[in-house]
Batch of 2 targets.
Target 1
Amino acid sequence: MTWDGSGGERGRFGADAVEPVAAPAPRSPRIGLALGGGSARGWSHIGAIEVLEESGIHPGVVTGCSIGAVVGGCYAAGQLGLLKTFALSLTKRRVVGLLDLRLGSGLIAGARLRQRLERDLADRRVEHLAVRFASVATDLGSGEEVWLTRGNLVEALRASYALPGVFPPVRLGGRLLMDGTLVNPVPVGLARALGADVVICINLNGDPREAGGPVVLDPDERADEARPAPAPRRRRSWALFRRGRRVPPETPSPGMARVMLDAFNITQDKISRARLAGDPPDVTISPRLAEMGLFEFHRAAEGIELGRQAARAALPAIRATLASAAARV
């Protein structure tokens, strides 16, 4: 029986009867995916995402920086397959064909790459994508970290990958924007800010073979006597700037492009380690990319496979983390 509010008793199934309310179904944790920068090494993001999707792990939030922004933006727009086809079609000659060298604020104007992105992504806007997406850029004037959560998708990607000295800065919202890896190479915090309960990051600079402690240098000690000569490391990434001629590791005076990009890579690695230590993800995927050069875009098949291998290795940790998060939600 129920009561009508005035003290009168009415039938249990009267018009105003209050029915029991079923308990709400438990909410699944929202998965965030933070894709790091690393130039050509970023093709491994494609393989890692494929493994996650094949395993039933579907990110609801994707953030990216530099090449991570390009892959993440294409994924959020439903165009990852198209990007993969493009990446696998690249040869050294085709990579050179995408470059439009010029003198100015960058060695490469980027018009050909921009046209390719505009053709494939049309007029999509960041805020209208099926998956929540944002990219990271750096304000050239103030050095501030800039989150691009709205606006034209292609422009948001271009601002995030505008590598200093290589691509010119992109003007958006009254700011000149450069590559986001200068301030946040792996945007974990941005994924959390967009509502992710669990954040998986793909760090392109996390290969353990590259880690090492500080070296104490004796200027009077000959290098060849102090330690054995290291095994030669492939430097094919500079073939694009050296007309296909490999630069040997022992070259005493490397070219400007090699110095600039090697220095940028070192800086990016150090910033990544510091940022991830202060704002760690729940799970890190670290493809073994130490032997892949930053400008070896023609090695997409190898990069994609290395991403798949790293993601498969991380699946047990991902599943355990999601199960723990689901119990807390």
Target 2
Amino acid sequence: MKTKKIMAGAITLLAAVTLAACSNAKDSDIITMKGSTITVSEYYEKVKTNSAAQQVLLQMVIKDVFEDKYGSKISDKEVDEAYNKMAKQYGDSFAAALTSAGLTNETYKEQIRTNKLVDYAVKEAAKKELTDDVYKTAYESYTPEVTAQIIKLTDEAKANEILKKAQENGADFDKLAKENSTDATAKDGGKVKFDSTSSEIPAEVQTAIFALDENQVGAAVVPVVDMTTYTSSYYIVKLNKKTEKSDNWKDYKKLLKEQILKQKGQDATFISSVVSKALKDANVKVKDDAFQSLLSQYITTSETSSSDTTSSSADSDKTEDSKKDSSEK
């Protein structure tokens, strides 16, 4: 989850729900003025159809469900560490960022906690799918550690120019990297070590390097787009040494497990299925027609209202039986 998305929020409906809870059965006034008032119910009717407000209600539902089921699994220390890390990244602008997102220190910590609770649930669900067949499938696409070199540039034309120099007989790749690369590895001649589970090296760069023979420079520049900033980088790659792959997948079981769990944790469909199951297990029902689509991405409308329909039918049957008994008397 990206930083800015984590901090995106709205408190409109939360405020309305809080006001409604405080007022109990009485419709309290929120605002009074000459000739008019604005009541809790009037305010609620206005804001409940707001998409941002509905999103907040969804977050509240997920928070309560996962807190009830997994609350003991996440400590306050974990939440504080994540909070402090984000505060450090934002620096002096952290307070302003919270305010612009409609959050306070406490409500932001609540968001962090809910995210961690869902992450925990997803990881636990993923562990249940760690069968031998799943491991073997991951093993088939796994490539052991390689030693390589990279040169990263932001200008494609210059990258192609450097590539030609790197492909010349006797080319000094170390020197070219030190003089031209914008990557943090430049001072070390662009040297990197990684396997296919690495998240430090872009997938496109990994694929290009894995396809090379030892001491071979890539035939073309490898373009990579950073999806968080939408900026492009251009890589020149060289493979120095490969590690022979074992025939026994169990030799990589620990690495494969980490890879599988990580992939599941990034799989939107899998995450959605975990949230859906948790909501069903908690028997979440939508009582207000305005929110019938609130859980649609996780639970169908028929599932959220079926018990209400059953209950209404039962009540209706009781009423009819009562009338029948009365008439017989």
